[in-house]
């Protein structure tokens, strides 16, 4: 099936719906917003189903590159689109069930704008459209964080600063690409770039810019502040999807133009080392935290480290590439499940302090199960999606002879499991405690949504064979020979 | 195991997993008070699994295998196979799951969070069945890790600080082991592709060992270390004594079939069905494994001597006894191999009897210390008798099951030219006697006067000394200990099957 | 040295000055201004690239226009948030 005309709809429809939703009176905005977001989700899933294993391309209004704007969707884009659609739909259902976990009626138009931006980053075929879409994502995400109440203003502002700095660095890289090649179209530009200091600068600026946006150590400090400050539904979107916008842009450019020169290799190794430190630092900080949402946020810092390590592993290794993409998908599903589950627990107990959650495993078993299963997938234990990703990456390390990453991958998994276990452990009922906190009754949907996401991260793991093949056939997979 | 043996593609291995997976899924959804549903599901699942095993034994002994597979990560399939060794282990886990389920239903009557308990209990058996049926390393790894995870809530079940700490220690050890195992599995898979367990060793692994002996040795060491954590081989045994905080049925299952056996089973699989004895021997893995196992046998027994807590003593005894399997697996002699294999079943049956009895003492009399056991035999004669049978079996007294595994092990040690095995076994037997006989003696000794008066002042004698659901499982397993020893010559006895499986490693 | 060369050197320098200033100053308003300075540097680079050839290249100029619009939007959001942050701080200090 080939309907590339649907590609602009992925961006324009949610934008249009956002405008409509913003005009609906506040009282009925939740209903309208939920309907609009569900439509967007259905569109995303429909497009993914239609693309299947193919690839679409559309020059907007018939203006071909380098002049016009081109939209593209290949296997990797499809995988990202699917993640956005699935997590987006889940978050929509969750947010519609309990307004206080979404930050009120203003959530809906902002969420639709964010969704449009995320779809846009994935299908944008030229660098400047990518920049614009990244800014759209940043502004919408910042506004969403600010919905977390008065105390969220400061983290939101910090988030905005970081996002803009990242974007400016990226824009500088875009300017360099245009100066060298005279085009902004990604495939044309990557084909035309010659090795040299300019290419290295482009990579360095992109790495810095996107590293800031995806909170790569040591540019991560904003994330553990901003993500927990947001309402639960927003935290889930930020960790599961918004971070990934930075990741996909970095990967697209890196694997498009990185060559084997020494300077680029140094950059790759530096990114890898930063990633390795992130894995341990994030894991250790998560272990030290005593509240659910900061634990999950630090967990994201750690997982972002893996995305940087993929720069070294996926270069010329199909296993590394498919492992990296699956890691993004697995992390998206599991982290969304985790943040939503944490939100449900915080809603039920009025706090997300670990010390106040005992008894939760009996009162809200499904939510605790979601937390645990999501953690298992993040830690990469079989048969989860996370394991499939880790397996592929481990295979890539050995194939490439870069065995030193094995320790990071394996120990990082143990750390992940450590803080997951700490969260689950806190929910056990302690006999002898007179005062077991009585949870506020939770709407069933708040427990069901994270649980379904968690189960999905196991089910996708068990039945991942087809997906891995699809990604391995992707042209981007080979990187540069 | 005959040349004309057939491999049939079949859904049966998957169904065997589902007999416990489906009940687990439903039980999680049940309300606390739906006792009848839960009991029915549990017993139906356990009986179905036993039914499958009984139906499969004759064809598998004739050499037919059933195989189910599906593609998973690139180049690697998930494979379930019913070969003789896997069926051997499934039979043990299915049978003991049935009796332990009955015991657990009685043990936890009226306790909170039973749906959670029985749900994870069934998952635990699912994982064990998966480990048994796993046809290749990665499938094995999948269920090995799953076992780690689903046992955690069981160990932590009571939620006390001790329970949570014990569970955490357990998790830290076993997950660490899992990581080491994973490293070995990935390495091997990248080098030789996915390999299926084959009696006598896999050819591709043998070729790799010839080409790159250093790498192969390292892979073998990773795999064996990973397994050794669960098999509680010193110095990786630290989790086992602290995991004793679990409820008695869990301890029984952990020590007899689930966790420790999975480790021992894995060691045998790796040595015999992956590397093959001769390759593993050439690489120098076997003497090291044998040395660690031999040390563990003696060390566990010595530590057991010093414990006053009955369950702790049994835990150290498990550490010691489990290494008989590892030791036998590391000796190149058919008798030793068969001894190791049969000890998987025999130790399971004996140890579960002992744990059932320990649970009975604790539940009925409130006794957990050995020093308090004096005279209990008068009040609980059947339990004490079952405990005695289990203890004597552990010591290795003929005609009990323990003898049927220790004797071939000793002879096999001599066959293999490793004479040091003999003194190790003798010392261990003496130590076994030294820590089990005092318990037995205390049980049957007339009780001191003041306790006699206390007992006579108690409620009138019941018809049974303990709740039937707790008592009969212990009596039945004790009877099996006797039966397996006496009937060792029967075609389908564990010993005969073990001999048959062992033959496969020497062809 | 032509004007274009000068702009190509000065642009990145302004970006660096803006970013360093953004990181070093504490006052929120100053940080927002510093960010705008940095963005001005980036625009300068783009304009210099547009002016390199004989005829001015319209593409980078279009990018600059879009960039300015985006930066204006960002500044607006930032100012709104900064006001709210100040309000929260005043409130907590007032108590």
Description:
- Chain A: It is found in: Cell membrane; Membrane.
- Chain A: One of its GO terms (biological process) is ATP synthesis coupled electron transport.
- Chain A: The chain crosses the membrane at residues 32-56, 77-97, 117-147, 159-178, 198-217, 229-254, 260-283, 295-314, 326-348, 368-391, 403-424, 445-468.
- Chain A: Residues 124-415 form the NADH:quinone oxidoreductase/Mrp antiporter transmembrane domain.
- Chain A: Keywords: Cell membrane, Membrane, Transmembrane, Transmembrane helix.
- Chain C: InterPro entries: NUOK/Mnh_C1-like (IPR039428).
- The complex is a heterotrimer of chains A (481), B (507) and C (95).
- Chain A has two domains: 1-259, no CATH class; 261-481, no CATH class.
- Chain A has 481 residues and is mainly alpha-helical.
- Chain A has helices spanning 6-23, 29-51, 75-97, 107-123, 127-146, 153-181, 186-192, 197-213, 223-229, 232-257, 262-288, 292-313, 318-349, 360-363, 365-379, 385-400, 404-426, 444-462, 465-472, and strands spanning 56-59, 70-73.
- Chain A is globular and about 70 Å long.
- In chain A, α12 packs antiparallel against α13 (318-349).
- Chain A has a two-stranded antiparallel ribbon with strand order 1-2.
- Chain B has 507 residues and is mainly α.
- Chain B has a domain at 309-507.
- Helices cover 73% and strands 3% of the residues of chain B.
- Chain B has 22 helices and three strands.
- In chain B, strands 1-2-3 form a three-stranded mixed β-sheet, with helices on one face.
- The termini of chain B are close together.
- Chain C has a single domain (3-94), classed as Helix Hairpins (Orthogonal Bundle), CATH 1.10.287.3510.
- Helices cover 86% and strands 0% of the residues of chain C.
- Chain C has helices at 3-24, 28-50, 58-94.
- The termini of chain C are far apart.
- The model of chain C has no long low-confidence stretch (mean pLDDT 89).
- The A-B interface holds A 319, 322, 361-362, 365, 376, 381-383, 388, 391-392, 394-395, 398-399, 406, 410-411, 413-414, 417, 421, 425, 428-432, 462, 464-465, 468-469, 472 and B 28, 70-74, 78, 112-113, 116, 138, 141-142, 145-146, 149, 152, 156, 158-161, 164, 167-168, 171, 175-176, 178-179, 182-183, 186-187, 189-191.
């Amino acid at each position: 099936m080939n309907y590339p005309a649907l590609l602009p709809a992925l961006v324009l429809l949610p934008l249009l719906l956002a405008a409509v939703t913003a005009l609906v009176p506040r009282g009925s905005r939740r209903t309208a917003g939920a309907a609009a977001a569900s439509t967007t989700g259905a569109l995303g899933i429909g497009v993914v189903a239609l693309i299947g294993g193919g690839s679409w391309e559309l020059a907007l209004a018939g203006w071909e590159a380098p002049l016009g704007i081109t939209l593209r969707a290949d296997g990797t884009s499809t995988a990202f689109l699917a993640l956005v659609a699935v997590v987006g739909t889940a978050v929509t259902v969750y947010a519609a069930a309990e307004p206080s976990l979404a930050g009120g009626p203003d959530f809906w138009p902002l969420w639709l704008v964010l969704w449009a931006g995320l779809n846009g980053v994935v299908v944008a075929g030229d660098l400047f459209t990518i920049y614009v879409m990244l800014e759209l994502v940043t502004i919408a995400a910042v506004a969403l964080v600010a919905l977390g109440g008065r105390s969220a203003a400061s983290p939101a502002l910090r988030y905005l600063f970081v996002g803009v700095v990242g974007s400016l660095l990226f824009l500088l890289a875009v300017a360099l690409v245009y100066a060298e090649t005279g085009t902004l179209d990604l495939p044309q530009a990557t084909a035309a770039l010659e090795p040299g200091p300019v290419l290295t600068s482009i990579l360095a600026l992109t790495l810095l810019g996107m590293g800031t946006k995806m909170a790569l150590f040591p540019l991560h400090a904003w994330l553990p502040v901003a993500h927990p400050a947001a309402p639960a539904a927003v935290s889930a979107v930020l960790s599961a999807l918004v971070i990934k916008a930075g990741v996909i842009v970095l990967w697209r450019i890196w694997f498009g133009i990185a060559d084997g020169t020494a300077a680029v290799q140094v950059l790759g190794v530096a990114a890898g080392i930063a990633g390795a430190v992130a894995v341990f630092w994030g894991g250790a900080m998560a272990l030290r935290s005593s509240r659910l949402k900061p634990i999950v946020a630090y967990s994201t810092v750690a997982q972002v480290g893996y995305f940087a390590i993929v720069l070294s592993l996926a270069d010329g290794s199909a296993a590394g590439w498919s492992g990296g993409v699956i890691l993004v998908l697995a992390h998206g599903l599991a982290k969304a499940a985790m943040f939503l589950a944490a939100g449900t627990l915080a809603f039920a107990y009025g706090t997300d302090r670990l010390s106040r959650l005992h008894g939760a495993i009996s009162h809200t078993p499904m939510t605790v199960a979601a937390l645990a299963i999501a953690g298992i997938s993040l830690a990469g234990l079989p048969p989860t999606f996370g394991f499939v990703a880790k397996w592929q990456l481990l295979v890539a390390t050995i194939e490439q002879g870069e065995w030193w990453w094995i320790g990071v991958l394996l120990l990082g998994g143990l750390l992940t499991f450590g803080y997951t276990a700490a969260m689950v452990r806190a929910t056990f009922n302690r006999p002898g405690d007179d005062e077991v906190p009585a949870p506020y009754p939770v709407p069933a949907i708040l427990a069901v949504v994270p649980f379904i996401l968690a189960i999905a991260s196991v089910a996708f793991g068990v039945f991942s064979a087809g997906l891995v093949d699809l990604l391995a056939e992707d042209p981007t997979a080979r990187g540069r020979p | 195991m005959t040349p004309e043996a057939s491999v049939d593609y079949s859904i049966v291995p998957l169904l065997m997993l589902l007999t416990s997976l489906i009940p687990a899924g439903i039980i999680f959804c049940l309300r606390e008070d739906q006792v009848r549903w839960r009991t029915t599901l549990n017993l139906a699942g356990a009986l179905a699994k036993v039914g499958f095993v009984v139906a499969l034994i004759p064809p598998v002994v004739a050499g037919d295998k059933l195989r189910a597979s599906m593609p998973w990560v690139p180049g690697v399939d998930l494979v379930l196979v019913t070969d003789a060794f896997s069926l051997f282990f499934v039979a043990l886990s299915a049978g003991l799951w049935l009796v332990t389920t009955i015991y657990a239903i009685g043990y936890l009557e009226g306790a909170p969070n039973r749906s959670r308990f029985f749900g994870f209990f069934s998952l635990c058996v699912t994982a064990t069945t998966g480990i048994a049926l796993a046809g290749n390393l990665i499938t094995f790894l999948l269920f090995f890790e799953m076992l780690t995870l689903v046992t955690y809530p069981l160990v932590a079940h009571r939620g006390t600080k001790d329970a949570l700490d014990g569970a955490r220690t357990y998790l830290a050890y076993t997950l660490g082991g899992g990581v080491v195992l994973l490293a070995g599995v990935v390495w091997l898979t990248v080098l030789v592709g996915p390999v299926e367990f084959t009696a006598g060793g896999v050819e591709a692994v043998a070729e790799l060992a010839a080409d790159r002996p250093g790498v192969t040795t390292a892979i073998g060491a990773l795999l064996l270390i990973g397994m050794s954590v669960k098999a509680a081989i010193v110095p990786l045994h630290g989790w086992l004594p602290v995991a004793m905080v679990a409820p008695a049925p869990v301890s029984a299952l952990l020590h007899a079939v689930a966790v420790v056996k999975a480790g021992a089973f894995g060691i045998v699989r790796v040595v015999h069905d992956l590397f093959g004895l001769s390759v593993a021997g050439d690489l120098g893995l076997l003497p090291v494994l044998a040395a660690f196992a031999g040390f563990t046998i003696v060390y566990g027994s010595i530590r057991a001597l010093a414990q006053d807590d009955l369950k702790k003593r049994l835990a150290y005894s498990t550490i010691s006894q489990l290494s008989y399997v590892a030791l036998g697996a590391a000796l190149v002699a058919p008798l030793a191999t068969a001894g190791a294999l049969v000890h998987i079943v025999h130790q399971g049956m004996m140890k579960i009897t002992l744990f059932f009895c320990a649970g009975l003492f604790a539940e009925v009399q409130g006794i957990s210390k050995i020093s308090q056991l004096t005279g209990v035999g008068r009040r609980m004669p059947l339990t004490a008798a079952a405990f005695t049978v289990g203890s004597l079996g552990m010591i290795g007294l003929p005609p009990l099951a323990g003898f049927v595994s220790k004797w071939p092990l000793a002879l096999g040690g001599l066959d293999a030219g490793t004479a040091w095995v003999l003194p190790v076994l003798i010392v261990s037997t003496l130590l076994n006697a030294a820590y089990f006989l005092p318990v037995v003696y205390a049980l049957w000794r007339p009780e001191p006067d003041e306790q006699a008066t206390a007992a006579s002042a108690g409620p009138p004698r019941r018809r049974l000394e303990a709740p039937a659901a707790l008592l009969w499982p212990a009596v039945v397993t004790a009877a099996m200990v006797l039966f397996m020893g006496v009937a060792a010559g029967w075609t389908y006895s564990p010993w005969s099957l073990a001999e048959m499986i062992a033959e496969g490693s020497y062809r | 040295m032509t004007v274009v060369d000068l702009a190509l050197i000065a642009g990145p320098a302004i970006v660096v000055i803006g970013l360093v200033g953004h990181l070093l100053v504490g006052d929120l308003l100053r940080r927002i201004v510093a960010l705008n300075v940095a963005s001005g540097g980036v625009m300068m680079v783009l304009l210099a690239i547009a002016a390199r050839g004989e005829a001015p290249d319209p593409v980078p100029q279009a990018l600059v226009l879009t960039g300015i619009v985006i930066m204006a939007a960002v500044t607006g959001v930032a100012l709104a948030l900064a006001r709210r942050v100040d309000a929260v701080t005043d409130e907590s200090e007032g108590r």
